[in-house]
Fold this protein.
Amino acid sequence: MKALVDPNKCTACGVCEEVCPASAITLAATMAQVSDDCTLCGMCVDTCEFGAISLPEVGTGPMANLADYRGVWVYAEWREGVLHRVGSELLGAGRKLADKRGVELSAVVLGHCLDGIGEQLLPYGADRVLLVDRPELAHFTDEAYSGALRELVRRERPEILLAGATAIGRSFIPRVAAGLGTGLTADCTELDISAEGLLLQTRPAFGGNVMATIVCPHRRPQMATVRPKVMKPTVDPRGGRIEPVEPPPECLQSRVEVLEVIPERDATARLTEADVIVSGGRGLKKAENFALLEQLAQLMNGAVGASRGAVEEGWIDPSHQVGQTGRTVAPTLYLAVGLSGAIQHVVGMQGSQIIVAVNKDPNAPIFDVASYGVRADLFEFIPAFIRKLKQEQGG
Amino acid sequence: MHIVVCIKQVPDTKNVRIDPDTHTLVRQGVESIINPFDLFAAEAALRLKDRHGAKITVITMGPPQAETALREVMARGVDEAVLLSDRAFAGSDTWATATALAAAVKKLNPVDLVICGKQAIDGDTAQVGPEMATFLDFPQAACVKSLDLADQHHLQITRQTDEGTEVWKLPLPALITVVKDVGEPRVPSIKHKLRAKKAAIPVWGAADLELAPEQVGLAGSFTQVVRVFSPPRRSDRILLEGDATQQAEQLYDLLKAAKVPGI
Ligand SMILES: Cc1cc2nc3c(=O)[nH]c(=O)nc-3n(C[C@H](O)[C@H](O)[C@H](O)COP(=O)(O)OP(=O)(O)OC[C@H]3O[C@@H](n4cnc5c(N)ncnc54)[C@H](O)[C@@H]3O)c2cc1C
Ligand SMILES: Nc1ncnc2c1ncn2[C@@H]1O[C@H](COP(=O)(O)O)[C@@H](O)[C@H]1O
């Protein structure tokens, strides 16, 4: 299968030939021709201003009972006793989708000893909170969690299911989708719904250099994960109800034995949760200078991150590394100090709300993603900024 | 013990971008590399082999040229390789990819352990591993940092979570996805390089996997890309002026106005 060209619309302008990453398009006399090298990546479709190119449709047609699926669900993540913030964020996004569809919004919580948990979610716009409170769910395991959620979906048939792209969500939600036989879009940054009820799922691809909008036309539920801190929670109490549900025990079985859960309130953990991250790179010159960033981070109640450059120099522990092979973070403020902004670093932090770059090289690529650019020597700027902060905080 | 490692050839992301003015994909210098996390997957398998002895088979689904990636991994000491390549696989989403890979693992049976990378850097979904585990009905563990056999029939792993680590014991056969902590990938050796160069690598298509055309590729996928575009540029960039102290004052005021917590 390959991209389809409409001979009536194609003007043989050649733009698609330029765009095709697989070099699969050539121009014949009157129209573009697609060879077997086509990988169906879709890159040409959007660039054709005449709307002449389309991709063949996915799948083998809609499932039989598509119309039976109704309602928007949010998986609200509960871990070892507490709800994760992504649950209320997703309820904010889910509320808008549910209103557009004119359907109910439900939150689903899986865990154990959930007294009072439902009440914490109701203010964020849920019409209903489903609670599965079982000892088998006290610790996360992929099989028990996916078994429980799958069973609930099979019973109630929501049309949309959203979950956080957290370590837990990214681990077991694919197992839910695969078990249900439906599509799943990872790490969405934007969600909308079409007039026909198709969930328009937009996400970065190719390390954030390209955005793609994805739909799941023929299967339900339409499933997506969303990174924490991307959506905003809204306080919108609707006097919703809390419903305990009891899936049959065979859905909760897991072959995995959890031997130990070791919470580390260490750098890595703090990194993904922190509102402020101060990150250093090779520009720091030596390990001792990270103390400067440490001091600044502390003043703002933040965490310290690092580029791979700094980690490779041995100046800081690898658990601090942000980027492609490190952590993906999206704090309110990311202060990038003395790091060049290599794409492998940028993919791990570009979701941050405000990015400040401190670099003495005005051409450093980090300035391309910065909201505020500080072109200065860090050894002058950081102490000056610390002084200013202390002065304001003290006064 | 038979270990299957799943690797993917991906475009080196640092070179892929859309020209913001022309909206065309910049093709220049886009090389293919082995997904970095998959080299860690291979290393994890090789370390198990060093300790306990094992046969390792590396598989990839991709175009014919993905064979190079398989030989590169064999040059590090992996025993065998299989390339899944068929026009019918084009357009696969994670579901269709996992379907083909799981079918290959079944064909390679008996398999005790499947190791994937945490995620591929082009799609970044981290879905293929867990979806394969579902199709194979294997228990799974994602983001594994360290692993070893607990006994003949069990694997003990430490996995990274958002707030620390967890120690799990999984019965074999199982599937895990790994992060870089499993160990720095070794360099290819001369001996293995020679063997890798000569090795015959079978190519399996949909029919070899006993999959019907409608189960694979675009036909076997559920998700459809409807639009591809370049991300909007940051429109709010402000370059500060003045000496370090002046810039520090300006930045403070900007962050204060933006109500950054901690300021
Ligand atoms: C497969 C792969 C995966 C990778 N994964 C990651 C990853 O996860 N995370 C990551 O970070 N990198 C990753 N990298 C590496 C990445 O490509 C870069 O090499 C790395 O990020 C560079 O680190 P740096 O910015 O600290 O160093 P450099 O690129 O050396 O930048 C140092 C910067 O500091 C500035 N500077 C120096 N002195 C001062 C001063 N006194 N005041 C102000 N500015 C100063 C310089 O102008 C320069 O811009 C990966 C690479 C590969 C190939
Ligand atoms: N086409 C493929 N061939 C072999 N393995 C793959 C393929 N796609 C993904 N994988 C494996 O699945 C992991 C996760 O990929 P992804 O879900 O695309 O992020 C990768 O690190 C690989 O181990």
Observations:
- The first helix of chain A runs from residue 15 to 19.
- Chain A has a mean pLDDT of 91.
- Chain A has three domains: 4-54, 66-252, 267-392.
